Amino acid sequence: MSAGHGEAVATRDDCAEAIRTVCSYCGVGCGIDVRTKPGVGGPVIANIVGDQLHPTNLGRLCTKGATHADLMGNTEGRAIDALIRPARGEEFVAAPVDDAVAAVGTRLRAILDRHGPDSIALYVSGQMSMEAQYLATKLAKGFIRTVNIESNSRLCMASAATGYKQSLGADGPPGSYSDIDCADLFFVVGANMADCHPILFLRMADRMRAGAKLIVVDPRRTATADKADLFLQIRPGTDLALLNGLLHLLVASGDIDTDFIAEHTEGWDAMEAFLADYPPARVAELTGLTEADIRTAATMIGQAGDWMSLWTMGLNQSTHGTWNTNAICNLHLATGAICRPGSGPMSLTGQPNAMGGREMGYLGPGLPGQRSVASADDRAFVEAVWELAPGTIRADTNRGTIDMFEQMAAGDIKACWIICTNPVATVPNRTTVITGLETAELVVTQDAYRDTATNRYADVVLPAALWAEADGVMVNSERTLTMVRECVSPAGQSRPDWQLICQVADAMGFGAHFGYESSEQIFDEIRRFANPKTGYDIRGASYQRLRETPVQWPCPPGDEQNRHPIRYLNDGVLAFPTPSRRAVFHARPHMDARELPDDDYPFVLNTGRLAHQWHTMTKTGRVAKLNKLNGNPFVEINPDDAAALGICDGRTVELQSRRGRAVLPAVVTDRVRPGNCFAPFHWNDEHGEYLAINALTSDAVDADSLQPELKVCAVSLRPDRTLRASTTAAGQPSMNADVPAPAPGPWVLWASQTGNAEELAAGLVDQLEAAGLGGRLVSMDDCPVSDLAQRDVLVVTSTFGDGDPPDNGAGFWDRLRAPDAPELRGLRYAVLGIGDRSYGQFCGHARSLDTRLAELGGARLLDRRDCEVHDEESVTVWARQVIELVDVGESAPVALDAPAAPRPAEPFTRARPVAARLARNARLTPASAAKEVRQLGFDISEHDVSYAVGDSLGVLPTNSDDDVVAWLAATGLRGDDVVEVDGAECTLREALTESYDICRITPNLLAFLAETTVDQAAARDLRAARTQLDTWRLGRNGIDVVRAFGVNATIEQWQEVLVRLTPRLYSISSSPLVSPHEVQLTVSIVRYRAPDGAQRGGVCSTFLADRARDVPVFLQKSPHFRPPDDTSTPIVMIGAGTGIAPFRGFLQERRALGHTGRNWLFFGDRHRAENFYYGNDLTGMVTDGFLNRLDLAFSRDQRKRIYVQDNMIAEGAQLWAWLQDGAHLYVCGDAAGMARDVDTALDTIIGTHGQLSAEAARDYKRELVADKRYLRDVY
């Protein structure tokens, strides 16, 4: 920003006159008038309206353009400082921008000197200004001398650009938007203009009202197709066959311009024989269209006086995208409908300056002014302007975006600088991008917002100015230059892209060539790049002129005309910029998409945009008005396919390709063809797990344009097995929609505290489906009791606390045991209880459910079975028995002898843990403390896995050698004896080390000892101990009990009584945004003395503290125990002792994401001096205002003991006020003590400060649970 301009902005407190600028979204390039008003620290945008004088839109704006004031008024999440990670995996630290750019430049220069120019890559954007794009090209190709500069335009317009060059000699459309106003026919193919380019579509609709016709070609019936006179719902990837077939029919009917072909083209001689291969019958077979419709389309084109073709990604994002553009040009050249008003090919760009970037050379061989490194003359010209020695600019080029990230993943590219784009969300098969960024030594991102899917992998984030905060020039799809004006000052320390590039270049040692003081100086240099070969010329444009009006190039010096709608006319003579001065016909045969559906992946996935969102929603996702219009992701599925798969509207569907998966709500609609599905690509990691559709898409590329084939990839679809709310056609959840009638077969009703019972229930559904039954997974939370009548229901539930239901089954249990619960006539049910035998109320909730369902009239299919989660044999037997008993109705007989092979387990799950190195083992408490608490960290960088805050880490421990020796000595058994465990033989010592929990005292162990001992007094003591197990076992473990009450028993008897050594779950205490490769835990190490003075300890905690190295671990997801999605929602966190763990992760996550919602933490333990875990971090957050309230309760630091629940009651009025403001409340601690006391305190607070009766208070709390605003992670 120049000093003068900055002063003008700073003093423009209220702008009575509109500031003319241009929209920041798509490539249509609509003009906008901005008015400002005084604000804190300077002017702010008061309102925006469409520019009625702009030739593109004449005052019209779409919803996105019209909400720019809302966008600029919401500063949440803006990058206002530079962000630097001190090391990979550590949290970002805010830094001055000058320090950050100096560090970036220094590190880039070191990598350049050490590894050479191609070790550095730039990935830039069609959203950058022309000036910034030019500087990126100049720095990369002229000074770093790397071939690795790529742009997101490679994903959008590379095929159109390449096709134009091959057919017409130069990039860019030959006509203008003004052709729309006089065309007789519009041929729209692979473009949903009504949603994605709505202002042009309105202009087209105006012409249609005057009699023009519309043909739409699309595999999806879009909003544009709804307005068509002829809609051709084509099979994906077969456009080339259709285009050839249309030209075949035009030749046959004589509707071609032979004079134009003879005078202005070459290559026609080969076309007629080539086109003979595309008669209507073959084209119909390839495309799925009818011959009649194909003939109608050809007739409409042949009889149109003037006609336009308009297309975008539907043709470009293809492995034959360049050929698609050639074929469109063939149609126009053959009919002579080009370079005259109302006619011509018009490719539509998706970004506001994608056209400008192509002109600045940011793709492949490009150089500024539509030049190429392949031309020695072009290289010499650019070297002269840039004052470089001859031969500096290299003649070689790269292999596109996909190859660039593949090189990065292979370690060949060491540094990547990403500017104004989000490749983690947008590049197909995005796993390659993620791997590349994780592999690179240095990742720099430059963005206006702190958190994007890509910034999460950055080492440095440079804060960039946003729209209306900097001057610059944009070029739209029809070659019109419009100036973006600085209307308000940049937020915080953010700076224009061009200025950041100059600063980094200076830090790399190239400052003498990047000493620009304003964007205007850069633009004046760009004006020197006129190219007489292609007709590119902006010498007649200037900042002074562009402040007054947009200008369409070519605009040579002295030309005062602002509009030049038709290219390639030289003094009225048509001449194309090819060596022969003629356009070229190319015979391009039909080619299948690279990936076609097959038995494993039988559906074709198509992706695209919605009307009211844009790209990855970095901007539009922050505008409430737009989110109300398009607020949720979805996948469209044809009704025939949905019926065959048992998918109903609103049900969540898993999409899987050879590359990845997504999980999206279904919209069942005939807008998509059978065998096809469609999903928008806007949603990504910022918005939730498994929403990024580009995890699935194909990265196969066009051989010429190197553009990937995002529009066609093969996927499988299967219903997610949880009932959910219905979804409307717009993808919005409809909470009032009726749950559709279930598929035949039983419901599998589940409740689970940790996820184990849910996993078993899902597996049972798989078995039902394999047996030919339509099982359905239903969460108890989502199930009305009355829906159980006249149904077969298989119940799988765990038990929480002292025989209570899991949290997600508590509401159902309340409804089931209510006095007015409905009779359940016709219900047939079976119950599988999952529990831990070490608890006295083993499977207590399963028993309660079993009894109550019978009381309400249900009939048992099978006696209840209670087992531990690892007892696979018991679970399998129960499942097989219950499937045999289920009423199959009209289904085929159940074949149980040959069960379907289970799907392979995903890594980092209980069924398939990964071995992670214990990389951190730090004691948090002083050596003198009574409690030993440690921070542990597991390195998962070698595994392609991730985690989320709120999740738990499962650890598979082993017993110590000393404990195994002691147990063998107590029982008199030999460790070398061979035993069988899970069908495999091993020594008893190995089994005791790895498979059996020899230290746990369970009711079964005491019963076995009482029954086996010959000492009757000992037997009485053991039976008495069972009734008071929780207190009796204190200070003892299983080895002590076996030694004290020794019995003679066989190995087989011990195998029956010993419980299995099960994984221990620990709440994760880090955020993947701060620590992506290290899962951190906060663990209390249990150590004590046995009655004989021997050292004892917790099996897993001492394993981790003393012996662990490479540990089998898995992720136990907690899908609801998460910070709220709404960034402004306040949260209250209540944790005692190591219950601080998840809340450390919550706070890290909310800070990293820039959440503005208030944060309140209640924490307690014994002594502040010993047990204030992460105290410095927490008090620092209080000091800087991020943690709004921190209430501490150290129970032993004063005479009267104070606990977290006491502080809650003391602050009850404020806590109630927070709840009334929508706060989410989270609890982490032990279930029997702390969590119960907190729950009681919450009842008191709600009743007292809400002035509610006890029953009304419980109802209020139940609503909090149902709304997932009261969530517990307790043990």
From TrEMBL:
Pfam families: FAD_binding_1, Flavodoxin_1, Molybdop_Fe4S4, Molybdopterin, Molydop_binding, NAD_binding_1. Its EC number is 1.8.1.2. SUPFAM superfamilies: ADC-like (SSF50692), Ferredoxin reductase-like, C-terminal NADP-linked domain (SSF52343), Flavoproteins (SSF52218), Formate dehydrogenase/DMSO reductase, domains 1-3 (SSF53706), Riboflavin synthase domain-like (SSF63380). Residues 16-76 form the 4Fe-4S Mo/W bis-MGD-type domain. Its cofactor is Mo-bis(molybdopterin guanine dinucleotide); [4Fe-4S] cluster; FAD; FMN. GO terms for cellular component: membrane. Gene3D superfamilies: 2.40.40.20, 3.40.50.360, 3.40.50.740, ADC-like domains (2.20.25.90), Dimethylsulfoxide Reductase, domain 2 (3.40.228.10), NADPH-cytochrome p450 Reductase, Chain A, domain 3 (1.20.990.10), Nucleotide-binding domain of ferredoxin-NADP reductase (FNR) module (3.40.50.80), Translation factors (2.40.30.10). Residues 911-1149 form the FAD-binding FR-type domain. It is an enzyme of class 1 (oxidoreductase). Keywords: 4Fe-4S, FAD, Flavoprotein, FMN, Iron, Iron-sulfur, Metal-binding, Molybdenum, NADP, Nitrate assimilation, Oxidoreductase. Residues 746-883 form the Flavodoxin-like domain. One of its GO terms (molecular function) is 4 iron, 4 sulfur cluster binding. Signal peptide: none annotated. It catalyses: hydrogen sulfide + 3 NADP(+) + 3 H2O = sulfite + 3 NADPH + 4 H(+). InterPro entries: Asp_de-COase-like_dom_sf, CT_Nitrate-R-NapA-like, CysJ-like_FAD-binding, FAD-bd_FR_type, Flavdoxin-like, Flavodoxin/NO_synth, Flavoprot_Pyr_Nucl_cyt_Rdtase, Flavoprotein-like_sf. GO terms for biological process: nitrate assimilation. The keyword Ribosomal protein does not apply. Belongs to the prokaryotic molybdopterin-containing oxidoreductase family. NasA/NapA/NarB subfamily. This is assimilatory sulfite reductase (NADPH). It comes from Mycolicibacterium helvum.
